[in-house]
Amino acid sequence: MAYDLQKESDVKEYIEKLGIEYRFGCYSEKKPDVCHLLGDYLESIKKDFEKASKVYRSNCDDYGYGKSCLKFGHYSFLGKGKSSANEKGDPKQAFKYYERGCDLKDPESCLHSGLLLVSKSLSSSIERDVKKGFELLTKACKMDNANACFYLSGMYISGVPKKDIKPDSKPTDPSDFIVQKDMKKAFEFATRACDMNNMYACANLSQMYQRGDGTEKNEQKAADLKKKALGMQDEIKKQQRELKFQQGIGT
Question: ∠ CA(95), CA(97), CA(66), 5° rounding?
């Protein structure tokens, strides 16, 4: 049957049929990719976050679908999809599912599990483990996750001292660091992230070429990368303006 997506009745019928197809493909044919699509359908179309959460969790636990582990990790972290709106997020459970997704070779899951472990702000909820977090971020970067490469670059730019170093001290011995400052490695990871169009990495890379940090000075490359970063920034602003305009039409 051909649907006229300009007609509201046809759109509603198409959406309902889509939901039926996803349910059949998930529950009857047991296809993990279709189960994930069912979760997305329940989330974005039906706005039934509790059901979507259950689908994502089941698809991760029962079928080992990495992207669903990532989604349920997000739900767990935010406290989304709970039966009670007052239930808070659970970083420990989120990490469990992010790590599961990472084991299943989902790069975004590796990124988020790594970020949870290196975060200082979550140390009261989840034990900080910079070494393991660094390894997870490295794994994500190797799977071409631009954000992970960018964060690794930042860790090499500043260095990460051991937590038992006094706040007012300035550690200099290599043994004082979990990740030692290394501008050459920072440059390498920033280059990789910029090549994958991470705007912030391109901006940092521009400064590195300008100052000669981790590489030889090159004003032309610095200018080119600055132009690239500003171009990406303008594109993001344009997309945000278009989104706000479209939202305004519907009000």
Answer: 135
15-83+90-198 CATH fold: 1.25.40
Q: Name the residue ranges covered by the structural domains of the chain.
A: 15-83+90-198
**Residue 9 to residue 48: CA distance in whole angstroms:** 22
Question: Residue 217's closest CA among 208, 226, 225?
Answer: 208
Q: Terminal CA-to-CA distance of the chain, rounded, Å?
A: 32
Q: What digits encode the pLDDT tens for the residues 165-220?
A: 555 566 667 777 889 999 999 999 999 999 999 999 999 999 999 999 999 999 99
The model's pTM is 0.87
Q: Which two tokens stand for residue 49?
A: 């976050």
User: Phi and psi (nearest 5°) for 177?
Assistant: -115, 145
SS3 readout for the chain: CCCCCCCHHHHHHHHHHHHHHHHHHHHHCCCHHHHHHHHHHHHHCCCCHHHHHHHHHHHHHHHCCHHHHHHHHHHHHHCCCCCCCCCCCCHHHHHHHHHHHHHCCCHHHHHHHHHHHHCCCCCCCCCCCHHHHHHHHHHHHHCCCHHHHHHHHHHHHHCEECCCCCCCCCCCCHHHEEECCCHHHHHHHHHHHHHCCCHHHHHHHHHHHHHCCCCCCCHHHHHHHHHHHHHHHHHHHHHHHHHHHHHHHCC
